Protein backbone atom coordinates (compact mmCIF):
# COMPACT_ATOMS: atom_id res chain seq x y z
CA UNK A 1 0.00 0.00 0.00
CA UNK A 2 3.03 2.29 0.01
CA UNK A 3 2.28 3.32 -3.57
CA UNK A 4 -1.18 4.45 -2.48
CA UNK A 5 0.20 6.39 0.49
CA UNK A 6 2.78 8.05 -1.71
CA UNK A 7 0.16 8.88 -4.32
CA UNK A 8 -2.30 10.58 -1.97
CA UNK A 9 0.46 12.39 -0.09
CA UNK A 10 1.77 13.96 -3.29
CA UNK A 11 0.58 17.40 -4.39
CA UNK A 12 -1.34 15.90 -7.32
CA UNK A 13 -2.85 13.23 -5.09
CA UNK A 14 -4.07 15.80 -2.57
CA UNK A 15 -5.61 17.87 -5.37
CA UNK A 16 -7.32 14.75 -6.73
CA UNK A 17 -8.81 13.94 -3.31
CA UNK A 18 -9.91 17.54 -2.91
CA UNK A 19 -11.65 17.38 -6.30
CA UNK A 20 -13.43 14.08 -5.60
CA UNK A 21 -14.53 14.99 -2.08
CA UNK A 22 -15.51 18.47 -3.26
CA UNK A 23 -17.80 17.10 -5.97
CA UNK A 24 -19.38 14.71 -3.47
CA UNK A 25 -20.02 17.62 -1.09
CA UNK A 26 -21.57 19.60 -3.97
CA UNK A 27 -24.13 16.81 -4.43
CA UNK A 28 -24.74 16.86 -0.67
CA UNK A 29 -25.40 20.61 -0.79
CA UNK A 30 -28.18 20.11 -3.32
CA UNK A 31 -29.83 17.36 -1.24
CA UNK A 32 -29.45 19.39 1.96
CA UNK A 33 -30.94 22.48 0.31
CA UNK A 34 -33.99 20.53 -0.88
CA UNK A 35 -34.51 19.33 2.68
CA UNK A 36 -34.11 22.81 4.14
CA UNK A 37 -36.89 24.13 1.92
CA UNK A 38 -39.25 22.03 4.04
CA UNK A 39 -38.71 24.70 6.71
CA UNK A 40 -40.77 27.16 4.66
CA UNK A 41 -43.93 25.07 4.61
CA UNK A 42 -46.73 26.76 6.52
CA UNK A 43 -47.58 23.63 8.49
CA UNK A 44 -46.01 24.30 11.88
CA UNK A 45 -42.91 22.31 10.99
CA UNK A 46 -44.60 19.01 10.15
CA UNK A 47 -42.94 18.56 6.74
CA UNK A 48 -39.48 19.38 8.07
CA UNK A 49 -39.78 17.14 11.14
CA UNK A 50 -40.96 14.20 9.01
CA UNK A 51 -38.09 14.83 6.57
CA UNK A 52 -35.58 15.03 9.45
CA UNK A 53 -36.76 11.74 10.93
CA UNK A 54 -36.51 10.01 7.55
CA UNK A 55 -32.98 11.32 7.04
CA UNK A 56 -31.85 10.11 10.47
CA UNK A 57 -33.60 6.73 10.52
CA UNK A 58 -33.28 5.37 7.00
CA UNK A 59 -30.46 2.74 7.08
CA UNK A 60 -29.10 3.65 3.64
CA UNK A 61 -29.00 7.36 4.43
CA UNK A 62 -27.45 6.72 7.85
CA UNK A 63 -24.69 4.69 6.19
CA UNK A 64 -24.16 7.41 3.60
CA UNK A 65 -23.91 9.98 6.40
CA UNK A 66 -20.78 8.26 7.73
CA UNK A 67 -19.25 8.59 4.27
CA UNK A 68 -20.26 12.24 4.36
CA UNK A 69 -18.52 12.80 7.71
CA UNK A 70 -15.37 11.16 6.37
CA UNK A 71 -15.56 13.29 3.24
CA UNK A 72 -15.79 16.49 5.29
CA UNK A 73 -12.77 15.50 7.36
CA UNK A 74 -10.69 14.53 4.31
CA UNK A 75 -11.66 17.69 2.44
CA UNK A 76 -10.76 19.92 5.40
CA UNK A 77 -7.50 18.16 6.33
CA UNK A 78 -6.27 17.92 2.73
CA UNK A 79 -7.33 21.50 2.11
CA UNK A 80 -5.20 22.68 5.03
CA UNK A 81 -2.32 20.59 3.69
CA UNK A 82 -2.63 22.14 0.24
CA UNK A 83 -2.69 25.67 1.63
CA UNK A 84 0.40 25.01 3.74
CA UNK A 85 2.31 23.35 0.91
CA UNK A 86 1.42 26.19 -1.45
CA UNK A 87 2.72 28.72 1.08
CA UNK A 88 5.96 26.78 1.48
CA UNK A 89 6.39 26.57 -2.27
CA UNK A 90 5.65 30.28 -2.65
CA UNK A 91 6.81 32.06 0.52
CA UNK A 92 6.53 35.47 -1.14
CA UNK A 93 2.90 36.42 -1.74
CA UNK A 94 1.50 37.60 -5.03
CA UNK A 95 1.75 41.26 -5.77
CA UNK A 96 -1.51 42.94 -6.70
CA UNK A 97 -0.90 43.03 -10.44
CA UNK A 98 0.33 39.47 -10.74
CA UNK A 99 -2.42 38.08 -8.51
CA UNK A 100 -5.21 39.83 -10.34
CA UNK A 101 -3.84 38.76 -13.72
CA UNK A 102 -3.06 35.09 -13.13
CA UNK A 103 -5.66 34.02 -10.59
CA UNK A 104 -8.95 35.01 -9.04
CA UNK A 105 -9.35 36.42 -5.54
CA UNK A 106 -11.18 33.27 -4.45
CA UNK A 107 -8.40 30.97 -5.70
CA UNK A 108 -5.79 32.99 -3.78
CA UNK A 109 -7.86 32.95 -0.59
CA UNK A 110 -9.21 29.40 -0.44
CA UNK A 111 -7.55 29.00 2.96
CA UNK A 112 -9.41 32.00 4.39
CA UNK A 113 -12.70 30.94 2.80
CA UNK A 114 -12.24 27.38 4.04
CA UNK A 115 -11.59 28.65 7.58
CA UNK A 116 -14.81 30.70 7.58
CA UNK A 117 -16.77 27.71 6.31
CA UNK A 118 -15.15 25.45 8.93
CA UNK A 119 -16.16 27.82 11.74
CA UNK A 120 -19.67 27.88 10.30
CA UNK A 121 -19.76 24.07 10.27
CA UNK A 122 -18.77 23.90 13.94
CA UNK A 123 -21.56 26.34 14.87
CA UNK A 124 -24.04 24.57 12.57
CA UNK A 125 -23.27 21.12 13.97
CA UNK A 126 -23.46 22.40 17.55
CA UNK A 127 -26.81 24.16 17.02
CA UNK A 128 -28.54 21.38 15.09
CA UNK A 129 -26.71 18.06 14.64
CA UNK A 130 -25.56 17.87 18.28
CA UNK A 131 -28.92 19.03 19.60
CA UNK A 132 -30.73 16.50 17.42
CA UNK A 133 -28.69 13.59 18.82
CA UNK A 134 -28.01 14.61 22.42
CA UNK A 135 -29.80 17.86 23.16
CA UNK A 136 -33.09 16.60 24.54
CA UNK A 137 -35.25 17.96 21.72
CA UNK A 138 -39.01 18.08 22.48
CA UNK A 139 -41.23 15.75 20.52
CA UNK A 140 -44.42 16.21 18.55
CA UNK A 141 -46.91 13.68 17.16
CA UNK A 142 -48.31 13.43 13.65
CA UNK A 143 -50.91 10.73 12.89
CA UNK A 144 -50.07 9.05 16.17
CA UNK A 145 -46.32 8.82 15.47
CA UNK A 146 -43.70 10.67 17.53
CA UNK A 147 -41.13 12.97 15.91
CA UNK A 148 -38.32 15.12 17.26
CA UNK A 149 -39.38 18.75 16.93
CA UNK A 150 -36.24 19.90 15.13
CA UNK A 151 -38.28 22.60 13.40
CA UNK A 152 -38.78 24.47 16.67
CA UNK A 153 -35.06 24.25 17.42
CA UNK A 154 -34.28 25.65 13.97
CA UNK A 155 -36.92 28.39 14.13
CA UNK A 156 -35.65 29.46 17.56
CA UNK A 157 -32.07 29.67 16.29
CA UNK A 158 -33.10 31.66 13.21
CA UNK A 159 -35.02 34.14 15.35
CA UNK A 160 -31.63 35.42 16.55
CA UNK A 161 -30.24 38.09 14.20
CA UNK A 162 -26.60 37.25 14.95
CA UNK A 163 -27.05 33.60 13.99
CA UNK A 164 -28.71 34.66 10.74
CA UNK A 165 -25.83 37.11 10.14
CA UNK A 166 -23.25 34.36 10.66
CA UNK A 167 -25.12 32.12 8.23
CA UNK A 168 -25.33 34.87 5.61
CA UNK A 169 -21.62 35.72 5.82
CA UNK A 170 -20.75 32.02 5.72
CA UNK A 171 -22.85 31.51 2.60
CA UNK A 172 -21.00 34.39 0.92
CA UNK A 173 -17.74 32.61 1.78
CA UNK A 174 -19.20 29.37 0.41
CA UNK A 175 -20.13 31.19 -2.79
CA UNK A 176 -16.54 32.26 -3.40
CA UNK A 177 -15.26 28.81 -2.37
CA UNK A 178 -17.56 27.12 -4.90
CA UNK A 179 -16.78 29.79 -7.50
CA UNK A 180 -13.22 28.51 -7.67
CA UNK A 181 -13.72 24.92 -6.56
CA UNK A 182 -16.37 23.78 -9.04
CA UNK A 183 -14.46 24.32 -12.27
CA UNK A 184 -11.14 23.55 -10.56
CA UNK A 185 -12.40 20.08 -9.61
CA UNK A 186 -13.25 19.26 -13.23
CA UNK A 187 -9.86 20.53 -14.34
CA UNK A 188 -8.04 18.42 -11.75
CA UNK A 189 -9.92 15.31 -12.86
CA UNK A 190 -8.99 16.02 -16.49
CA UNK A 191 -12.64 16.60 -17.42
CA UNK A 192 -11.94 19.74 -19.37
CA UNK A 193 -12.10 20.48 -23.06
CA UNK A 194 -11.98 23.81 -24.93
CA UNK A 195 -15.43 23.07 -26.33
CA UNK A 196 -17.07 22.38 -22.97
CA UNK A 197 -15.02 24.54 -20.59
CA UNK A 198 -17.28 27.61 -21.03
CA UNK A 199 -20.32 25.46 -20.15
CA UNK A 200 -18.58 23.97 -17.09
CA UNK A 201 -17.56 27.42 -15.91
CA UNK A 202 -21.04 28.81 -16.55
CA UNK A 203 -22.72 26.00 -14.61
CA UNK A 204 -20.12 26.36 -11.86
CA UNK A 205 -20.66 30.10 -11.52
CA UNK A 206 -24.43 29.68 -11.54
CA UNK A 207 -24.24 26.93 -8.91
CA UNK A 208 -21.85 28.99 -6.77
CA UNK A 209 -24.27 31.92 -6.70
CA UNK A 210 -27.70 30.25 -6.62
CA UNK A 211 -27.14 27.49 -4.04
CA UNK A 212 -25.50 29.62 -1.29
CA UNK A 213 -28.05 32.40 -1.95
CA UNK A 214 -30.94 29.98 -1.44
CA UNK A 215 -29.32 28.62 1.74
CA UNK A 216 -29.01 32.20 3.04
CA UNK A 217 -32.58 33.17 2.08
CA UNK A 218 -34.15 30.46 4.28
CA UNK A 219 -32.88 31.78 7.67
CA UNK A 220 -33.54 35.37 6.55
CA UNK A 221 -37.18 34.54 5.76
CA UNK A 222 -37.58 32.67 9.05
CA UNK A 223 -36.06 35.59 10.96
CA UNK A 224 -38.52 38.09 9.50
CA UNK A 225 -41.38 35.68 10.15
CA UNK A 226 -40.38 35.58 13.82
CA UNK A 227 -40.45 39.37 14.26
Automatic annotation (TrEMBL):
<dbReference type="GO" id="GO:0016020">
    <property type="term" value="C:membrane"/>
</dbReference>
<feature type="transmembrane region" description="Helical">
    <location>
        <begin position="66"/>
        <end position="84"/>
    </location>
</feature>
<dbReference type="InterPro" id="IPR034804">
    <property type="entry name" value="SQR/QFR_C/D"/>
</dbReference>
<keyword id="KW-0472">Membrane</keyword>
<feature type="transmembrane region" description="Helical">
    <location>
        <begin position="161"/>
        <end position="182"/>
    </location>
</feature>
<keyword id="KW-1133">Transmembrane helix</keyword>
<protein>
    <submittedName>
        <fullName>Succinate dehydrogenase cytochrome b subunit</fullName>
    </submittedName>
</protein>
<feature type="transmembrane region" description="Helical">
    <location>
        <begin position="16"/>
        <end position="35"/>
    </location>
</feature>
<feature type="transmembrane region" description="Helical">
    <location>
        <begin position="105"/>
        <end position="125"/>
    </location>
</feature>
<keyword id="KW-0812">Transmembrane</keyword>
<feature type="transmembrane region" description="Helical">
    <location>
        <begin position="203"/>
        <end position="224"/>
    </location>
</feature>
<dbReference type="InterPro" id="IPR011138">
    <property type="entry name" value="Cytochrome_b-558"/>
</dbReference>
Amino acid sequence: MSWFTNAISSSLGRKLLMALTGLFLIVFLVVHLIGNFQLLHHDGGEAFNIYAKFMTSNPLIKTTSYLLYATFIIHIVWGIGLVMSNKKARPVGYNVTKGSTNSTWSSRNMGLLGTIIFIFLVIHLKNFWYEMHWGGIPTVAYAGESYNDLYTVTATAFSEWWIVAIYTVSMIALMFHLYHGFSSAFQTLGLNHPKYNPLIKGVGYGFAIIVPALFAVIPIIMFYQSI
